[in-house]
Amino acid sequence: MPLETILLITFGGVLTGIIGALFGIGGGVFFIPFLVLLLDIPMHQAIATSLVAVIATSSAAASVNIERRFTNIRLGVLLETATTVGAVLGGMTANILSEDVLSRLFGGLLFFVAILMASRLRQRESSTPETPPAQGGKLGASYYDPALQEEVRYDVRRVPAGLGVSFFAGNVSGLLGVGGGIIKVPAMTLLCGLPMKAAAATSNFMIGVTALASVFIYFAHGHVHAVVTGAGVVGVLGGSLLGTYLSGRLHGKLIIGLFVVILITVAIEMFLQS
Amino acid sequence: MHPATIEKLVSRTLRGGVLMSASLLVVGTIGLFLHPSSMPPTVPAPTLAELLEAIATGASSFSIPILLLHAGILVLALTPLARVLITLLAFTAQKDWTFVVLSFIVLLVITVSISLSVS
């Protein structure tokens, strides 16, 4: 592999890390198309690279979130039982499927992400759901929200539905190499009644273990390319640090609109790739 | 074990794993640039079994930068596993048996996945 390609992989990692941190989306959604479309890396290798990068960024973020007490560790462990099983099955399926099929599935996922992002354009900026006064419940928890300047308490509802969604999110993660937060976070806020901060932190807490559950299957098939993965992970980690430093999250409608357009373009490219 | 202690321990494990792995990966990548001849000529990556064998027998076919990269990837992959072990021990110390069982299930799924991959 030429040294320029390694530099490009790191550069792509930095870019996707920054974008991921700014938009609150894991790197995989951008990094996999970058590797496949621009650098001709085989799809399975790109997925494996992304899974390792996902472990890196989610572990780094989780370590901060846990100290802030945003993470609901008990709920995370409970949902991990479902999400890891989903991830193992997803990883096994991916290694049976051809590159073409995976590329098309990935294109479909990108359309889904684009729609989800487009729906953010309609929402109001403050996305704090109503938190009914909660007491007790083994999974319920509380944390101090510095923005609201108060202790936020909540209960966890519809646990079976949460388990089902976690299984599905794990499945998508193992199959396509993304973290799956894009599925878990809305499910945890809308179905289980978690406040946004707790949902994002708990989803992140689970993502490292989810990726771990399937990455060894890619290892077994010889898809973990040391050079691609090493250079990529260094880039993504650096980029996400930079992105977090630059700003918390972007809300500008123009930027999100542009982002949606890019997502759809990449989705079409991924379809045509196969 | 106090919940705050557990949180601190989990947080430090995750951070330590990422930092250790990132150092290995950065040094490995720089090594590739300093010694371009250490680049593997073949496209297929080694499987986990081949890699473990190479490490156990003293790194026959891999150059040092490539081994550093593989070590970094393995440290990173095992960081969440260490986290699962710590939460398992913490719930055991708290005698919270429901969550001991749940942590154990997670550990079991991951162990099965890894052992299937090695064999």
Question: Could you tell me how far the N terminus lies from the C terminus of chain A, measured between alpha carbons in angstroms?
Answer: 23 Å
What is the succession of H and E elements of chain A?
Answer: HHHHHEEHHHHH
Oligomer: heterodimer
Helix/strand order of chain B:
HHHH
Overall pLDDT of chain A:
86
The neighbouring-strand order within the major sheet of chain A is: 1-2
Radius of gyration of chain A: 18 Å
Strand content of chain A: under 5%
Low-confidence stretches of chain A: none
Count of alpha/pi helices of chain A: 10
SSE class of chain A: mainly alpha
- Helicity level of chain B: over 70%
Q: Would you write up a description of this structure?
A:
The complex is a heterodimer of chains A (274) and B (119). Chain A is mostly helical. Chain A has helices at residues 3-23, 28-39, 43-67, 73-94, 99-122, 159-176, 181-190, 196-220, 226-246, 253-273, and strands at residues 141-145, 150-154. In chain A, strand 1 and strand 2 form a beta hairpin. The radius of gyration of chain A is 18 Å and the shape is globular. Chain B has 119 residues and is mainly α. Helix content of chain B is 78%, strand content 0%. Chains A and B meet through helix 1, helix 3, helix 4, helix 8 and helix 9 of A and helix 1, helix 3 and helix 4 of B.
How would you summarize this macromolecular structure in one to three sentences?
Chain A has 10 helices and 2 strands; from the N terminus they run H-H-H-H-H-E-E-H-H-H-H-H. Chain A has helices at 3-23, 28-39, 43-67, 73-94, 99-122, 159-176, 181-190, 196-220, 226-246, 253-273, and strands at 141-145, 150-154. In chain A, a hairpin with a 4-residue loop joins strand 1 (141-145) and strand 2 (150-154).
Question: Which tags fit this structure?
Answer:
heterodimer, A: 274 residues, mainly alpha, two-stranded antiparallel sheet, 2 strands, 4% strand, B: 119 residues
